[in-house]
Design a protein that fits this description.
Length: about 650
């Protein structure tokens, strides 16, 4: 490569990166670049996921360093879990740990990570487009197309690590560039495949699919199989090595929804369906389409500019398409495989399931390693965008057509860009401590060293994870995408046995998600711990056993477990029951069986609520775990969410 060519590439990359930076700053502003500003992490930008990412980093930053390097012993204690499974960008967490210790105080790297993702998206977008258009203006218009890609905007700061979509663009650039040079390998491609595991494992099948296509086409054309195979083997070995260092293989992960392949699948309308998460529309003209199950996670709206350009491209290049397919046969093959995996065996179109193709349970379990399979369509998505660009730039005045394509695209998706801008501003307004933790009970409970989630994962209560991390606690709850389900269940049973024996640990706060399980465990320890319900302003409740705090009085958000503690219907619903009320008669209600409930109901003549008495006609305990009470009442649904007493 001549110096002139190298200089032009460097110039294009820098200019494309500047466009990416401009998109980032226009949408998100400069606030996320302040490493001491974590309001948007705590506030939950768009949804709660970034709270998990940030909590994972906080636990990891303040826990003892151990091997593998990416493992935090403070989460999923005492075993620990890799920050890869809290989606905390494990490679960056390891590298930023000493920097955070040097800076002290609040330190978040998610803003700068996302900023560089936009820079690299624009830079590699410009390089990729330069392979199909001459000059500077047209490739930069293409770079803007990729820097403002709807799938990038949809993921940035929401699933932070998945903002590194430049990895796919870089792999595609290596593919086309190396193929033109009749080469099968380059250090850059090798490096991409390795660091992908340090950012998010979902990028591995994407970058490796492109790499495999390059190697196969070279091997078949040159009839040389050994060197491409050695390159692939060495690349995979180094990828596995980095994954091991970061803790991907630490422990035994039995959870993670192995049966969810097909749920987060790509709907057949995904390319022209502009509806994003939380109902954000990515189009000024196209209406939202129906989708079902987890189709929302396979968002792949191409944008009006690309959708309009693709038919032009197909028409203009109709005579060259078959030749291009033959020339890039392996890339087309891996694209077909990625698309089939993204659509899955559960084929959906709009609001209907067209077919469910039978797959062996072993394959469902294997495929569910990448349970959000719709994401694997991203390389195909980028190639469709590239095809739209390349087709238009073959027309006269290529730069004008490329600029028009980018302008139409930006005009179309501008409402979504504005909505994401507003979401970032809203996230910045979050208080230092999340509102769910406002009870003064939590201030008193800050003395504990450990939190034990005794029943029911607190995975949806990420404010609790942030609070625990802020207070230097450990938690047995993984707050992670993968963990050892059987080990957690065994540990919880050991905890329940200790509570039943009346021997809780003095430095441990015990939390329950379900009142029935709390009432089963509380009686033996009520004299040596504060026990009761702690409610947040939104009504969400935890049930706590706090050793050493017995006798203390807290605010109105706390209901202590004592003689005045109320009965509540079990929140049980199935085909026959609706929130603890038998549908058939609406006269029978159910309670979780516990010593507390039995003591209240034994010998009682009536249930009381809001000053009304409802005579008890029968108490049935034949269904293990439940107490079914028949009342003299017209419609027991009036007892939903009521605090009940007996008489």
């Amino acid at each position: 490569m001549s110096k002139i060519q190298s200089s032009r590439k460097a110039q294009l990359f820098v200019l494309g990166a500047l466009l990416g930076a401009a998109v980032f700053l226009l949408v998100y502003g400069i606030a996320p670049l302040d490493v001491a500003n974590d309001a948007f992490c705590r506030g939950g930008y768009v949804e709660k996921d970034i709270q998990q990412h940030y909590a994972g980093w906080l636990f990891y930053r303040d826990s003892a360093l151990r091997w593998p390097l990416g493992v935090s012993p403070a989460v999923n204690a005492p075993s620990g879990v890799s920050v890869a499974y809290t989606d905390s960008i494990p490679l960056l967490a390891v590298l930023c740990r000493p920097l955070a210790a040097l800076c002290g105080g609040t330190f978040q790297y998610f803003g700068w990570f996302t900023f560089f993702c936009f820079l690299l998206q624009g830079g590699f977008g410009a390089l990729l487009c330069s392979l199909f258009a001459a000059g500077t203006a047209a490739p930069l218009a293409g770079a803007l197309l990729f820097a403002a890609s709807p799938i990038l905007i949809e993921r940035a700061f929401r699933h932070t690590s998945l903002g590194a979509q430049w990895l796919v663009l870089a792999a595609l650039y290596c593919y086309f560039s190396l193929r033109r040079q009749r080469r099968y390998a380059a250090p850059g491609l090798f490096f991409l495949n390795v660091i992908a595991v340090g950012i998010h494992p979902y990028f591995l099948p994407m970058t490796y699919a492109v790499t495999l296509a390059l190697l196969l086409e070279y091997a078949v054309q040159k009839r040389q199989w050994l060197r491409p195979a050695l390159f692939l083997g060495a690349n995979m070995a180094c990828t596995v090595l980095l994954g091991w260092v970061l803790g991907f293989f630490y422990g035994t992960a039995t959870s993670g929804g192995q049966a969810l392949y097909g749920y987060f699948a790509m709907n057949l309308n995904a390319l022209w369906n502009p509806i994003g998460v939380n109902g954000v529309l990515y189009s000024r003209l196209l209406p939202a389409q129906n989708q079902i199950d987890g189709n929302y996670d396979a968002f792949a709206y191409l944008g009006l500019g690309v959708l309009a350009a693709l038919p032009i491209t197909l028409t203009a290049a109709r005579r060259r398409i078959l030749a291009a397919v033959r020339r890039h046969w392996a890339l087309c093959l891996v694209c077909c495989v990625l698309t089939a995996f993204a659509v899955s065996n559960v084929i959906t179109a709009n609001g209907a399931t067209l077919a469910v193709l039978p797959l062996p349970p072993s394959l469902i379990k294997l495929f569910s390693v990448f349970r959000s399979g719709g994401r694997l369509f991203w390389p195909v998505y980028d190639l469709l965008t590239l095809a739209a660009f390349a087709g238009l730039t073959r027309l006269p005045r290529a730069a004008v057509w490329a600029a028009l394509l980018a302008a139409v695209q930006l005009w179309d998706i501008s409402p979504a860009l504005a909505a994401r801008h507003d979401a970032m501003i809203s996230a910045q307004k979050t208080a230092a401590f999340p509102s769910e933790m406002v009870s003064d009970f939590w201030q008193a409970a800050g003395q504990y060293r450990h939190i034990l989630s005794v029943q029911g994962l607190q995975a949806d209560c990420l404010h609790l994870a942030l609070w625990a991390a802020d207070n230097g606690m450990t938690t047995n709850d993984p707050f992670a995408a993968r963990y050892d389900e059987s080990a957690l269940a065994s540990q919880r049973q050991t905890t329940l046995d200790a509570l039943a024996a009346g021997t809780p640990e003095g430095d441990t706060l015990y939390l329950f998600a379900d009142e029935g399980a709390f009432l089963q465990a509380v009686e033996p320890v009520r004299s040596i711990a504060w026990c009761g319900q702690v409610t947040g302003p939104d009504g969400a409740a935890w049930y706590a056993i706090a050793p050493g705090l017995q006798g203390q009085t807290f605010d109105a958000l706390c209901t202590p477990y004592n003689e005045s503690y109320p009965l509540r219907l079990a929140d049980y619903t199935d085909a026959l029951w609706n929130r603890g009320v038998l549908d058939a008669t609406k006269k029978t209600v159910c309670f979780a069986d516990s010593p507390f409930a039995r003591a209240r109901l034994t010998g009682a003549a009536a249930l009381c609520a809001d000053g009304q008495e409802y005579p008890i006609l029968d108490v049935d305990d034949h269904d293990a775990g439940w107490l079914m009470v028949t009342l003299d009442i017209d419609d027991a649904t009036i007892l939903w969410d009521q605090e009940l007493t007996t008489k």
